[in-house]
Amino acid sequence: MQFVQFIRDALSLLFPELCAGCSEALIHQERQLCTHCIYNLPVTNFHLDSENLAAKQLMGRVPISAAVSFLYFTSGSIVQKIIHQIKYKNGFATAEFMGELYGQRLQDLEEFKTCDLIIPVPLHKKRQRSRGYNQSAYFARGLSKMFQVETSDDNLIRITHTESQTKSKNRYERFKNMRDLFKIKNPDLLKNKHILLVDDVLTTGATLEACSATILEIPGVKVSIATLAFTK
What we know:
Elements: H1 2-14, H2 35-39, H3 53-59, E1 66-73, H4 78-88, H5 92-106, H6 110-113, E2 117-120, H7 125-131, H8 135-147, E3 156-158, H9 171-178, E4 182-184, E5 194-202, H10 206-215, E6 222-231
Parallel strand pairs: 1-6, 2-5, 5-6
Antiparallel strand pairs: 3-4
Helix pairs in contact: 4-5, 5-8, 9-10
């Protein structure tokens, strides 16, 4: 074991693993983020307030049970750097790690203890093929480790590719553009279940609204939402 650790330490000197937040070399036992960056993450604490900003943004639009986001997203912030790595620099391990961090905060809350299944917001197959992975699916895996709940990333599918919805004129227009983009392949698998729907960033909420509306067409389903970041 000492020899294996020696090899690992030697490799880390030659090819250091860098922090996703500050790009400094990680030290022994640090994963994805250095201790300094973890300590300085702009945590929302939305999970402590059922009427938080994410919940207010979504609950009037679709009958979800709860909505939370881990971090505040602002331009130029550490969170933007983390999201950029997750999306564009093969940062699937970072996405999973962030799911684990957030899962530690959520796992003892009654609202999330009752979740039966975690579903990530899907990418269209064209975008997933070009990126190589769905970052929200890896965030879901991190949450799954903490909750001890299975994930399903192949039942909810995106059937049409669209560009970003942030430039649409209004909320109704955004939702209209999104509402027919998602489909459940096997609705029977979700009947009477509490679904935790997860995504990377909550911005307009149009995608989450459309996904939730599709899932809620299934009898007995309950939907809660968790995202890695919330755009102020």
